[in-house]
Structure prediction request, 190 residues.
Amino acid sequence: MKYYILFGPPGAGKGTQATSMVEKYNLHHISTGALLRKEIAAGSELGLKAKSLIEAGALVPDEVVEGMIESEFKTVTGVDGFLLDGFPRTIAQAEALDKILAGNGEKVTSIVSIMIPDEMIIERISHRAAIEGRADDADVSIIKNRIDTYHSQTEPLIEYYTKAGSYNEVDGVGSIEEVRDRIFELVDKF
Ligand code: AMP
Prediction:
């Protein structure tokens, strides 16, 4: 099984690029953000707890998302691998993922990091707000908190995966097709 991690700041285009990767490489897409939004829409207890954190631009507790990932790994079959989008977002989550995979005799295949400069994040997310109607996209102060959260809690993963030898970066500036082709060129190697 392949285990790819789509990495990058909010607004880098992870969700958009996931769609083409899933199709080309027969992967199951796991977006922890989308799973959490589903819980919120269903009005579950978990959704209620997650809502205020998401709308503050903060992260939900590690155990919550780790549980979601583990249950997807257990229940999904018939694919050549998994595409993790928005997970891991902290070192603790990365360590938990390594442990879960090691328990199944597996490991992370590669990180595909889509990089865009901070200045572009607000522009991209504000554009998406009009299309997808996400509450956490609609307010510049929430977006700024998400950028801060990314820098303080998620960016250290670059070093974590560089040390593990699985970190790979593509330039996220350009058209959707240009970025997609850069990703395909990279993932074709694995
Ligand atoms: P996303 O759709 O990936 O931008 O995620 C939206 C929001 O869901 C994030 O800003 C976090 O509040 C929460 N979230 C998604 N994935 C995670 C994760 N792996 N760890 C903690 N919080 C997460």
About this structure: The mean pLDDT is 95. DSSP finds nine helices and five strands in the chain. The first helix runs from residue 14 to 25.
